[in-house]
## 1
Amino acid sequence: MSYKFDFAFMADRWPDFVAGAWLTIQLTVLSIALGFALGTLCALVRVYGGPVLRRLVGAYVEAIRNTPLLIQIFIVYFGLSSLGLKLSADVSAVIALTVNMGAYSTEIMRAGIQSIQRTQLEAADCLGLTRLQTILHVVLLPAMERVYPALSSQFVLLMLASSITSQISVEELTAVANNVQSDTYRSFEVYVVVAIVYLVLSALYRFAFWAIGLGLFERKRRLGTPL
Amino acid sequence: MKTASVLRLILGAAFALLSLGATAHADTLDDIKKAGKIRIAIDLAIPPFGMTDDKMQPAGSDVDLARLLAKDLGVQLEIVTTTGPSRIPMLQTNKADIVVSTLSITPDRAKVIDFSLPYADHPSVVAGMKSATIKELSDLDGKKVAVVRGTTQDSDLTQKAKGAQLVRYEDDATMALAFASGQVDIIATARSLLPAISKKNPARTLEAKITMQTNYLAIGMRKDEPKLLAWVNDWVKTNLQNGKLVAIYKTHHGIDIDPALLLKAGG
């Protein structure tokens, strides 16, 4: 094979890549925020909730963590549409990614919450903290600090997995790559470019989560050591 | 100093690999005969061209054509399944020897691969629900139109129907599902596909509204393969004239193709 590399298509197609990367960022930042909120809530229910609620959350977590993301996306996009609930591809993608993110962050946050020792809760009780204050300051924030590396990895994984939404016509980064590839036939070059863009995005996300972590966890900011 | 030498090492390895690839290049027709098998890329998600039958075996007009070609060449057939967007990359990356996969002849594609004489014609249409009034491309303004990414319908509508909102799917099956489930009401596709898509959901029957253009389907192969191209061209001509390709088309599509027209279109 005599293959000649040719990146000339970037001259007029780079705005497409920028638009695709921007949609990827919008989709995933929204899904990460919503999914993490959902996951935290479910984790609290899983640890402190009643038996029925606990089982419900357990079923949700297992159902999502044991089925492929692509199938979940198809169910939201094609399944709900067959039942008469027509959601656009972008909305379907955010819903599916959020539900997926929620299940994984439930498990991660549950591990964090369960790592908080009973003595801490008793101390909070003695200090006269209300139940809400205890959950916020004594349980959730330290729990999140403990599992923060695992959480940020999962967030970055979700960003990478969002490439699958190109299958339901979401015009995100991978879909743009497929479009350009099918117009120019420079498949190798296009996917090299898009791989680099994903690498840069991952680095950006990791940096952003590190910065957010510093802002959130005062102890870590002052001492620089993990909890 | 250290990074420079590492970089040199990587570059050296890359060049070694590339030049190795270049020397390994030989004549594909000879390679096929030597290997005793031909690797033909077919998309098995485009009924009735390529599909999987009720016994889970490859079937369809492209599959039958590939079988006949391999038999006449005297070699085993190895079907390499592909998708619309990856048909040409399959050739470029040497994952297949030839492509028989509803591949229309276009000038852009002819820049990167060679085409045989056309073996069938293939009109593409804009289709919608019976009740929809769509007479020309401007009627599509502001409407969602489903296409398969990288197809001729995709590039045609991208250029000619700028007001339409193109929704791009990866293959015909996904696009058909999008129509059957009601995510889109208009699709641009090959006329040959309409019956199969309508069958998925009888409440939503498709009707051809606009004929965009008639494409000619041909066998695709890598450039600079004169021996292979000559053999395939000769084979297509022979089998159009003896009626074998016409019969294959009739079986799967229910229509007669016109050998004289195709041979004229092929020059």
Note: Chain B has eleven helices and ten strands.
## 2
Amino acid sequence: MSEPVAGIALAVVIVGLALSTFLTRTSFLLAGQRLRLNHHIEVALRYAPVCTLTAIIVPNVLLHGPVYDFSPLNPRLIGVAGAALWLCWSRNIVGCMASGMLAYSLARLYL
Amino acid sequence: MSAGAVSERRAAFRAGQLAILPSLPGTAAWGLICGVAMVKAGLAVPWAIAMSLLVFAASAQLAAMPLIIAGAPLWVIIVTGFITNLRFVIYSAALRPYFTGLSAAKRALAGFFMTDFTFALFMRRAQEGSLPLRHRDSWFAGVCANNYLTWQTCSITGIVASSYIPTDWGLEFTGTLALVALVGPALVARPALVGGAVAGVVALLAHALPYKLGLFCAAIAGIAAASLADSLRVDPPRDAGVAQ
């Protein structure tokens, strides 16, 4: 394609990205009472964190670029297993990350 | 405002700063890697810093990178960023009930600083009933302050020192693990487990959709499945504090 976006055009892109991001983040917060959701939907949204975070995590673990990796030797899968094992007896986040990274790194080094 | 109210606000702010503390290593590692990735993609250092400070949305920044380098039309880059960020619309809708009654400026600030992490932490505390009863906005401000400062410090370090930072240690995986730590405990409830499973499968199947639309579809499908599972339960559904 053409030359990279630079100069004023790049400034426009950055401000445009900042504004469009701000728009998504503040959409319902700023709409206030004008944009009220159905009560059932508002109640259903309590599952939003679990569902979006799982939807971020799963492809991070089971996709290697565009390719699926369901092998039990997949280091990321082993890392998540290590983290999950930790979560079975403690909710400490730092410990969870440490045990996950340990399992992940060992798997990458030795498998 | 009285002196007592001010110190109560400060206490809530501090409690928020403490609450996000354990997740910060994940934010730090992912911020570092994101900063490095922007420069390695070919963006000049000052522009990368400006983008990090103003946009503050890693997935949109990284999605825009190849388009900027390829010289794509400006509106294509901006629309790509918008679609990549569609999940924030869901977050914004979920947070709305807790922030009604605040001034528009405060709601705008809460929105600007909201991320996957800060949103998930706020919702988890709200559902456990462990948010402070008063000054929730100050508590959230404390969470967001530490999260933003940590992210920016590490992202800018990554941008400036990109050639010294190892990208083959898998440091970015720490960010994924921090999300696992936030989600894991919630998965013991059956509707959440159903929602998470559906969201995960849809995210895998739809990963090839452009603009991270797969993530948005997966979130919607998961939320629908979770509330369906909730309505099919024998015991009455818990409102989990949302409608209070």
Note: The two ends of chain B are 26 Å apart (CA to CA).
